[in-house]
Automatic annotation (TrEMBL):
The keyword Plastid does not apply. Gene3D superfamilies: Medium-chain alcohol dehydrogenases, catalytic domain, NAD(P)-binding Rossmann-like Domain. It comes from Paeniglutamicibacter kerguelensis. InterPro entries: ADH-like_C, ADH_N_2, ER, GroES-like_sf, MDR_fam, NAD(P)-bd_dom_sf. The lineage of its organism: Bacteria, Bacillati, Actinomycetota, Actinomycetes, Micrococcales. Keywords: Oxidoreductase. Transmembrane segments: none annotated. Pfam families: ADH_N_2, ADH_zinc_N. Residues 17-329 form the Enoyl reductase (ER) domain. This is NADPH-dependent curcumin reductase CurA. Coiled coil: none annotated. CDD domains: PGDH.
């Protein structure tokens, strides 16, 4: 079986040289184990953080070990009860063509007509769940509010804009990094207004898109976007700090927002979160999301890169903004 390992820790942007492709001989299955042929693996921004040897919410990747992460595939051999050949499963064993081990590492999912298995990595998986938790549990979105979402055309962001609307937001504003993405935001994902953050200062573009201010900010980006949101917040505004992709590959710490004192004068509440700590909300998410998808109330995109050997390229492209919606690698 083929695996992609982290070979060295990148400084700044990762390159091919930081990874290695390794072929391993898989042992026979023991009692209680299954073997899975992966169909899609996930590439996610958090993986960049795990390449650094620093303390974070998830342990750093070990050198010369597999790049772990979300993946879906089908059981090809089973010595475990409850797992049959052909069953689709979700797991966290990451960048490899074949995953095997104790059945406890795998969760059987349902084949849903019309949906690719990769949906369990995106719209029915970690990224859309993150959008759901961030808006509802962290920011406490209320009916009639104005919401601003950065990284709005990505996996988390494209779900967040639609969830905000479905959960009662009055006005949803998004930012993204190209004209094509900005058009998608308003034409496909139901955003009321959108702008390209590369067109000019975020602060001014946000002011123009939200002349009456924002009540909720869903931050995927950090940096200039966070400062702009602090500028546009209405009194009592709340921010869900989800990610800071603008600084993940930076080699120097960015300046903090210069207007943090708005938090005091406007009584703002900014709260960071990592979705893994909110698993108790997963059933509610699945119930809502399954219904929205079945009723055609939510749409999603995936950017699919072919071949395990293109995983590194897919991850780097994701951080450069080559994706619309969820970036996945198809095996
Ligand atoms: P996306 O699908 O949004 O892909 C990343 C996107 O980031 C790119 O498409 C690109 O879009 C955008 N981007 C890259 N550089 C910049 C920049 N300098 N400024 C603004 N945008 C930039 O990824 P995800 O949906 O998986 O993740 C989105 C965010 O959510 C990330 O910050 C991630 O770390 C975070 N996250 C947090 C979780 C949590 O538990 N807290 C869980 C999952 C994700 P563009 O073309 O618009 O620039």
């Amino acid at each position: 079986s083929t695996q992609i390992h982290l070979a060295s820790r990148p400084i700044g942007w990762p390159t091919d040289a930081n990874f290695s492709t390794v072929t391993v001989e898989l042992p026979e299955l023991s009692e209680g184990e299954i073997r899975v042929a992966n169909e899609f693996i996930s590439v996610d921004p958090y993986m960049r953080g795990r390449m650094n040897d620093t303390k974070s919410y998830s342990a750093p990747y070990a050198l010369n070990e597999v790049m772990t992460g979300g993946a879906v595939g089908r059981v090809v051999e089973s010595r475990a009860e409850g797992f049959n050949v052909g069953d689709p499963v979700l797991h966290q064993l990451g960048w490899r063509d074949v995953a095997q081990g104790d059945a406890s590492h795998f969760r059987v999912v349902k084949d849903i007509p019309g949906l690719p298995l990769s949906a369990y990595l995106g719209i029915l998986g970690m990224t859309a769940f993150t959008a759901y938790v961030g808006l509802l549990e962290i920011a406490g979105l209320r009916n009639g509010e104005t919401v601003f979402i950065s990284g709005a055309a990505g996996a988390v962001g494209s779900a967040a804009g639609q969830i905000a609307r479905l959960k009662g937001a009055k006005r949803v504003i998004g930012s993204a990094g190209s004209a094509a993405k900005v058009e998608l935001l308003t034409e496909k994902y139901g955003y009321d207004a959108a702008f390209n953050y590369k067109d000019g200062p975020v602060r001014e573009q946000l002011r123009a898109a939200a002349p009456e201010g924002i009540d909720v900010y869903f931050d995927n980006v950090g940096g200039e976007h966070l400062e702009a949101a602090l500028d546009s917040f209405n009194p009592g505004g709340r921010g869900a700090l989800c990610g800071a992709i603008s600084v993940y590959n930076a080699t120097e710490a960015p300046a903090g927002p210069r207007n943090m004192s708005n938090m005091i004068t406007r009584g703002l509440n900014l709260k960071g979160f990592t979705v893994g700590n909110y698993a108790e909300h997963y059933p509610a998410f699945m119930a809502d999301m399954s219904e929205w998808i079945a009723q055609g109330k939510i749409v999603f995109d995936e950017t699919v890169v072919e071949g395990l050997d293109h995983s590194v390229e897919a991850l780097i492209d994701l951080m450069r903004g080559a994706n619309t919606g969820k970036m996945v690698v198809k095996l």
